[in-house]
Amino acid sequence: MEPERAVARPTDDARCRCGSGSTYGECCGPLLAGRPAPTAVQLMRSRYTAFVVGDTAYLLATWHPSTRPERLDLDPEVRWRSLEIVRTERGGPLDRDGVVEFAARYAHGAERGVQRETSRFLREDRWRYLDAVD
């Protein structure tokens, strides 16, 4: 497996990189430390933050086993800039499935872009990312 990209995690009192408006310690920090996400959108936000800091272990651990790749290599040159949650369907604490549509802005050298995706999530023992439908 490729070594993880060395990016400093935010401090607990810094604004969370997922754009929720909360601090990292109140938002994605506890999830990246192992606490299960209570909703599909919170899992989506924490997975975005994991991409920001290069936490491939978290990304793989929160991927549903039926679709999870054996390994994940992140491009160390990609810098994730912002996340916008476009819409959600279901995905609450009592639901078994959910959908989160998002737009994630990034920079790759001089290139700027937006990754748009509609992601599906399943909750069995905990919420996990299943796949993208777009």
Task: Provide structural commentary.
It comes from Agromyces luteolus. This is YchJ-like middle NTF2-like domain-containing protein. InterPro entries: NTF2-like_dom_sf, YchJ-like_M. Pfam families: YchJ_M-like (PF17775). By secondary structure, this protein is an alpha+beta fold. The chain contains 3 helices and 4 strands; from the N terminus they run αααββββ. Strands 1-2-3-4 form a 4-stranded antiparallel sheet, with helices on one face. A hairpin with a 3-residue loop joins strand 3 and strand 4. The two termini are 28 Å apart. The mean pLDDT is 94.
Query: Strand content of the residues, in percent?
Result: 25-35%
How many strand segments? 4
Could you tell me how far the N terminus lies from the C terminus, measured between alpha carbons in angstroms?
A: 28 Å
Tell me which oligomeric state these chains represent.
Answer: single chain
Q: What's the average pLDDT?
A: 94
Write out key terms for the chains shown.
134 residues, alpha+beta, Nuclear Transport Factor 2, Chain: A, 4-stranded antiparallel β-sheet, 3 helices, 19% helix, 33% strand, globular
Give a topology summary:
Layout: H1 28-32, H2 40-53, H3 56-61, E1 78-90, E2 97-108, E3 111-123, E4 127-132
Antiparallel strand pairs: 1-2, 2-3, 3-4
Q: What is the gist of this entry?
A:
The chain has 134 residues and is of the alpha+beta class. The protein is built from three helices and four strands, in the order H-H-H-E-E-E-E.
